[in-house]
Amino acid sequence: MLSTQTNGRGQPQSPRRPYGFSLIELMIVVAIVAILSAIAMNSYAKYMQSSRRSDAYAALSQAQGMMERCYALTFNYKNVATSSSNCTDISTTSQEGYYSISIGPAAATTSTYTLTATPVAGSAQAADTTCASISIDNANNKTALSSGGANESTTCWQQ
């Protein structure tokens, strides 16, 4: 005959079930959380890079306004870089400090210009290889290049 265990009142005792989590269950949960965090951090970093590009757009827009103001006063884009004209010099750094603004690739001519925003080395935006330079010219042509030189205009200028 089989003997059964009883509790203190003569009733049969059910087998003990362990409470809590096993180590394997806990490790599976930790692995899932780690994978989800890695995906979330990567997505967040890309989102922040794309949102910081608005600093370049604002700086280019402001510089473009200055160039057009100068042209209206002097009928010449070249005078922006000189202090002898009534034109205000263009700021060389964006408001948030993520981009440097330049007139180029060569100095502006009397009738054309190209403004370029490039990420400042050492800033949080320096890792943005997709939009390594963002440009706009006097005809409002918007271009962007990756760090490898590929045309990324549609990616970088979408708003």
Q: Rg to the nearest angstrom?
A: 31 Å
Mean pLDDT: 82
Largest sheet, order of strands side by side? 1-2-3-4
Helix content, binned percent: 25-40%
Beta-strand share of residues: 5-15%
Low-confidence stretches: none
Number of helices: 2
Please give the domain count.
1
Shape: rod-shaped
Q: What structural class is derived from the secondary structure elements? A: alpha+beta
Largest sheet: 4 strands, antiparallel
N- to C-terminal distance: 82 Å
Count of distinct strands: 4
Secondary-structure element string: HEEEEH
Structural write-up:
This protein is an alpha+beta fold and 159 residues long. It has one domain. The protein contains 2 helices and 4 strands, in the order αββββα. It has helices at residues 23-74, 153-156; strands at 99-103, 114-119, 133-137, 142-145. Strands 1-2-3-4 form a 4-stranded antiparallel β-sheet. A hairpin with a 4-residue loop joins strand 3 and strand 4 (142-145). The longest helix is centred in the first third of the chain and has 52 residues, at 23-74. The protein is rod-shaped and about 105 Å long. The termini are far apart.
Considering the chains and any ligands shown, give keywords for the structure.
Prepilin-type N-terminal cleavage/methylation domain-containing protein, single chain, rod-shaped, 4-stranded antiparallel beta sheet, 2 helices, 159 residues, 35% helix, transmembrane, alpha+beta
